[in-house]
Amino acid sequence: QVQLVESGGGLVQAGGSLGLSCTASRSIFGIDVMGWHRQAPGKQRELVATITSGGSTHYADSVKGRFTISRNNAKNTVYLQMNSLKPEDTAAYYCNVKSRIPVIQDYWGQGTQVTVSS
């Protein structure tokens, strides 16, 4: 069963913007940290940004100043606004949700492709 649904990927020119969203099922209880990871072909999956339930954020150095992560707890949704996109941002982007109830669990979205052309 699908518990995280992502949307917003696509093709954009360098310098452009794109917004991603990920909504977690209400069947997931005790959501703590939410975030985004990305993986390009032949590369390891890397952390892009995270946000705690209290709103504290963390960004990979490569996206600082360009990407903004946010969340709406009432909607169980996390967002990633990507500005000033570069070709090196091209990757499949995966939503990640960590829950604590009843036990610690990780959930992953299906991935959404972001392609930035030169």
Number of strands: 11
Amino-to-carboxy terminus distance? 37 Å
Output the number of helix runs.
0
Tell me the Rg in angstroms: 14 Å
Helix content: under 10%
The helix/strand class is mainly beta
Describe the largest sheet: 7 strands, mixed
Which stretches are poorly predicted, pLDDT < 50 over at least 5 residues?
none
The chain-level mean pLDDT equals: 96
SSE string, helices as H and strands as E: EEEEEEEEEEE
Query: Which percent range describes the beta-strand content?
Result: over 45%
Task: State the shape.
Answer: globular
How do the strands and helices of this protein lay out in sequence?
Blueprint: E1 4-7, E2 10-13, E3 18-24, E4 29-39, E5 46-51, E6 57-59, E7 67-72, E8 77-82, E9 91-101, E10 105-108, E11 112-117
Parallel strand pairs: 2-11
Antiparallel strand pairs: 1-3, 3-8, 4-5, 4-9, 5-6, 7-8, 9-10, 9-11
Task: Give a nutshell description of this structure.
Helix content is 0%, strand content 58%. It is built from no helices and 11 strands.
What does this molecule look like?
Helix content is 0%, strand content 58%. It is built from no helices and 11 strands. It is mainly beta and 118 residues long. Strands 2, 4, 5, 6, 9, 10 and 11 form a 7-stranded mixed β-sheet that branches.
